Amino acid sequence: MEAPRTDQDLLKDFAQKSDQAAFTTLVERHLKLVYSVAHRILNGDTHLAEDVSQQVFADLARKSNKLARHQNLPAWLYTSARFAAAKTVRTRARRAKREKASNALLEMTTEPSTDLLWENVKPFIDEAVDSLPDPDKTALILRYYEQQDYHTIGKQIGASPNTARMKVQRALQKLEHSLSKRGITSTSAALATAISANAMTAAPNSLALAIAAQTSQLAIATATSSIIAAAGWPVAATIAIVAIGLNTTPTPAPQPDPATSSLLAEPTITQPPALASVQAPHSPDPIELAYAALDRDAQLLTQMLTKIDEKIARKINAPVNREKTYNFAELDTKPRILKGTPPKYPTSHDGTKVAGSVVVEIVLDKNGIPQSFTTLKATHPDFAESALEALKEWKFDPGSIQGLAVNSRVKLPIKFTPSDEGPNFQDWF
């Protein structure tokens, strides 16, 4: 019976004669050892253990000439398997750390705070909402402007509460898409929160009373004019009676004059003598005065709109001043974070385990390089110091106007939250 060939003989035949059968024998002889070591270090991940096993035997093939003289090939395979598996663990840990940091930076650019998001949205929200189809606009306004529940919205639009909910969600998605064309990115949830919290402004209580009083007077005037016109009374008498109807000071009801009563009872009489005394040919008609006031308001509104159009035209046609520092809302394209390490939770606060926040204003030049940092708000100086230290290493894609990169000013809110794994930057707040 022929004795089994040694590892050295098999490896020498492969190295010198390219004997594939010899190498296959080595693999069959030691694969269980290599796979077991890798499987154990990789916590039972069979796919990674298979990858490590292939790496080890590939390395053995590359080094076959040198290792053919090695007297302890199993020991070499054991050590190689352990090192390769450990390297895989480290690589996966580094990749997970990079992905975590990348996700944090991505969330920073897509989930700004409600206040910051509203500041960016505010110049465009009314135009974007008004561009929606009427059914979507109605659903959106009822939900996020007037704070109606879906049951109430469904009644108003003639749909079930569930259908109303879907209409609102579709309208919100359309609004989100419309704003994204203007460089404003956010989630539907953040946009809904920003609109609900900021879109409505409480009107003065006195304004409702004033509008009700004005409407009441116009209604009285209109009703009185209609009654008098139906009775066939002359215009002069109409003016006088309308004026009396609009008088806000209570006056005793006049006693009917017998002559007047008899004259009014005759439909053929067009000019009752008793009403001649109240004719006021030079008194203004309240309805005509109201129309005149509306005409004046329309003229003023037209003038204002003309000025606004001229201002917008001047802004669009004005050359871009590349030396000026523009505010965030003025930019056509907003700055983007290209590279950066999230700020670390201050070690000085590890014992306190308290959350912190910082708002930093950054001035970027037209190359996207930070020129200055200003701490606008910080719950503790240590958080501000950590934020500034990290931000100095960040790189940005600059903002632009009309396709030209410009200097810009942005506000960056940062939240710090303690973690069992150590200091960690969380998200925009």
Please identify which CATH superfamily of the domain at 7-109 we are dealing with.
Answer: RNA polymerase sigma factor, region 2, helix turn helix motif
Label the structural class. alpha+beta
Query: What sequence of helices (H) and strands (E) makes up the elements?
Result: HHHHHHHHHHHHHHHEEEEHEEEEE
CATH class of the domain at 7-109: Mainly Alpha
Average residue pLDDT: 77
Radius of gyration: 41 Å
How many helices in DSSP terms? 16
**Count of beta strands:** 9
Give the DSSP E fraction (strand runs of 2 or more residues): 5-15%
Shape summary: elongated
CATH architecture of the domain at 7-109, by name, is: Orthogonal Bundle
**Helical residue percent band:** 55-70%
Poorly predicted spans = 233-254, 259-280, 420-429
Question: Gap between N and C termini, in Å?
Answer: 78 Å
